[in-house]
Design goal:
alpha/beta, 8-stranded mixed sheet, 14 helices
């Protein structure tokens, strides 16, 4: 329970550092719901208070959400000084490879691995790249190799998360050397860039999912931080370390949908997430890929310990960025706002009653469109568990499952899941073989 509370509290980060004459003492705060947390008071801010737990994480709670005793305690306390204005972000020219192989903010031409030019890949380096610091990296493989157009799908996520992205050209369907090509790409990127090896990620599209899973099985010290599996064909996910978080994107008419469902049945992490979209075997949109990268990025930051002070700072900054995105999306696209909020809350998501302590999240949950989407996600999960239990090797729900999916399609016709339920009743599109 303590771990779950700490994950939720990260959502309510303060917008800046608050100053006080002396470090206040930790005390137990009680919510109207009865939930408790040990934290120190940092500031009273209008109708809210900012608290800080023992790990240094700050969060904002509505005063009216606290117990009458806590409200009375706060009434006699002076407000803290206003936070200092944030320093402007540094700006300068985009980084360029001294060898001319890449330029930050641009999809590269073919890059040959230094140790063996037989293996090549495409590369994207985020605009903020600075060689003086370590960077997360995403290694991508697909059934048909890499193309500049496919790599560009990952650019919005790379800029949001600050990831380098490398995409193998030789890892492809029916190639016996695909795993070798991926390994060569990994080693070359590690030799060229200052990479944070605790934040290395793998991504695979169709048969590329198996190559990404194989990479996770091979790279265990440290393990890959996460996997992004897109319309993935069957892979042996039992070899994936439990520390590796998996996020899946699958078209509801994809010929791999059964394989994707079975893989996520077999994964054992408590923060794994499979998300369906209305589509076939096609790539999902850059926005959906960005959502998946964001989910994995924040899950990796949540694993930071008190020894990782720089990562804790980055976690606070990224949580603020996610909260801003939720505020931006809550009225125009409440479904994506719900997905971002689920990522912030971690395991348990918005099912956790402590989510209601935050006024913004509480308002989001009261939005009928958000509630419809979240209810639909629960029904979708139940449907897949019931009609795709291992060792079912098919792609179809069966007669009884189809009838239930059609009813759910009507129930959720006013949100995107209506098309997903309908698609699950239809014949899947065959997997392309290049």
């Amino acid at each position: 329970m303590k771990t779950l509370i700490l994950r939720v509290l990260v959502v309510w980060l303060a917008l800046g550092a608050m100053t006080m004459a002396a470090p206040p003492e930790l005390r137990t705060w009680t919510a109207q719901s009865g939930a408790q947390v040990k934290a120190r008071l940092i500031e009273q801010k209008d109708a809210n208070v900012i608290l800080e737990n023992a790990n240094g994480e700050r969060f904002e709670i509505g005063l009216d959400k606290l117990s009458p005793q806590d409200q009375k305690y706060i009434q006699g306390l002076p407000k803290a000084a206003a936070p200092a204005a944030a320093a402007p972000a540094a700006s300068g020219p985009l980084a360029v490879d001294p060898e001319g192989k890449w330029k930050a903010g641009t999809v590269s031409d073919e890059i040959e691995c230094k140790k063996n030019s037989q293996w090549t890949y495409l590369l994207y380096v985020p605009k903020a790249y600075d060689p003086k610091q370590k960077w997360p990296v995403l290694f991508v493989a697909a059934h048909s190799g890499a193309t500049p157009a496919d790599l560009k799908l990952f650019v919005p996520g790379a800029e949001t998360c600050g990831w380098i992205v490398a995409f193998s050209e030789q890892a492809r369907t029916q190639s016996e050397d695909s795993d070798t090509a991926v390994r060569a790409m990994v080693n070359d990127v590690l030799a060229r860039f200052p990479i944070d090896q605790k934040r290395m990620y793998g991504a695979g599209y169709i048969d590329g999912a198996a190559y990404a899973v194989n990479l996770a099985g091979q790279h265990k010290d440290p393990p890959l931080a996460g996997l992004l599996l897109i319309n993935g064909n069957q892979a042996d996910v039992r070899k994936v370390p439990s520390e590796t978080v998996a996020y899946g994107l699958c078209g509801c008419n994809c010929g791999c949908r059964g394989a994707m469902i079975r893989m996520f049945h077999e994964l054992h992490g408590d923060n794994d997430h499979l998300r369906f979209f209305a589509g076939q075997n096609n790539w999902p949109s850059p926005e959906l890929i960005r959502d998946g990268m964001m989910w994995l990025h924040y899950a990796g930051l949540q694993a930071a310990t008190l020894m990782d002070q720089e990562l804790l700072k980055e976690r606070k900054a990224f949580a603020k960025k996610m909260q801003d995105e939720i505020n931006h999306l809550k009225d125009t696209d409440p479904e994506r706002a719900a997905e971002w909020t689920e990522a912030l809350l971690g395991p348990g998501g918005m099912e956790n009653p402590m989510a209601l302590l935050n006024p913004q999240l509480s308002a989001l949950l009261k939005n009928p469109r958000t509630k419809l989407y979240l209810d639909g996600q629960k029904d979708l999960s139940r449907l897949l568990r019931r009609y795709f239990p291992p060792p079912n090797t098919g792609n179809d729900l069966g007669k009884e499952g189809d009838a239930e999916a059609r009813k759910l399609a009507n129930t959720y016709k006013d949100c995107s899941l209506g098309d997903v339920f309908t698609g699950l009743t239809q014949v899947t599109v065959a997997i392309p073989r290049d």
